[in-house]
Amino acid sequence: MTGYKVANGNGHSNGNGNTKGTNGTNGHSNGHKSADYTAQENPTYPYEVIEEIADFITKGSGMRPKIGIICGSGLGSLADMIQDPKIFEYEKIPNFPVSTVEGHAGRLVVGTLEGATVMAMQGRFHFYEGYPLAKCSMPVRVMKLCGVEYLFATNAAGGINPRFAVGDIMLMHDHVNMLGFAGNSPLQGPNDPRFGPRFPALVNSYNKDLINKAIEIAKAMGIESNIHVGVYSCLGGPNYETIAELKALRMMGVDAVGMSTVHEVITARHCDMKVFAFSLITNKCATEYSDKKDDEANHDEVMAVAKNRQKACCELVSRLIREIHLASA
Ligand SMILES: O=P(O)(O)O[C@@H]1C[C@H](O)[C@@H](CO)O1
């Protein structure tokens, strides 16, 4: 060692270095039996707690939604398409975390879209907000117990594949779980078989029929040149990646990088939901060193691109939901 002092520990008392001080749940008692339950004590939400949240939503909305949508950064307008919406602010849902990120409104919208019953998260939870992964993806289990069969997960991501342009859409057909490489999973802790098996397989996680339907829809919309099929990877964030990290991801076969979705997909597949997911490419990731300021990703740009492309994203999602609904009618 040359001149570096290496500390023995990181001095943090919690696992992810977050010092927000609370467990991030909304702290409402709402008269629920589980009012003294805190996710801090046990980040694996018991089945009964998820069931209570699901009951709160199905009773409050009078609906059992079939399709769940998670809106990525700047893509909250996906939920604005929902007709006769019943809106649940996260802070009013018992035992629900709160959204802390700009571009994630923090509400659950339940209603109909293209004839199908849907529930959409306008605001997701990210690991970098200080939430354990089980908590980030807890709403997926709530969706399952509400009756959801299909998860539509969307995100804003940086394009690593040099063929991708800003504004393109990458349909996810696989992922590389970098947080999993580091020993972190939303399924860590005791497994409740009512959700799924202890060791779920994740090959074919992204439904091929839905990918193919989405490609057909993109052709009909005249945007097929902006559509790709590729591999997404989630890093912990909140910092964007270094050039060396982006180079490494590219060598691993990653096409787009973000900070979400993977833990939601793992949780959805664990409880046997069909998954469709896409990344809106909001910035190009540099994989060579240069002095260009353009190479630096920033959240304002991410939000601006998402706003510009929301119409295409909304049309793709609504047409795909229409197909699912018609096929099941
Ligand atoms: O929620 P998503 O994955 O769409 O948000 C991305 C990742 C970070 O939260 C943020 C960075 O700009 O956008």
From TrEMBL:
Signal peptide: none annotated. InterPro entries: Nucleoside_phosphorylase_d, Nucleoside_phosphorylase_sf, Pur_Nuc_Pase_Ino/Guo-sp, Purine_phosphorylase. Residues 8-29 have a biased composition (Low complexity). Pfam families: PNP_UDP_1. GO terms for biological process: nucleoside metabolic process. Keywords: Glycosyltransferase, Transferase. GO terms for molecular function: guanosine phosphorylase activity; purine-nucleoside phosphorylase activity. Residues 66-322 form the Nucleoside phosphorylase domain. Phosphate binds at S73, H104, R124, F125, H126, A156, S260. Residues 1-38 are annotated as: Disordered. Pathway: Purine metabolism; purine nucleoside salvage. CDD domains: PNP-EcPNPII_like. The purine nucleoside phosphorylases catalyze the phosphorolytic breakdown of the N-glycosidic bond in the beta-(deoxy)ribonucleoside molecules, with the formation of the corresponding free purine bases and pentose-1-phosphate. This is Purine nucleoside phosphorylase. The lineage of its organism: Eukaryota, Metazoa, Ecdysozoa, Arthropoda, Hexapoda.
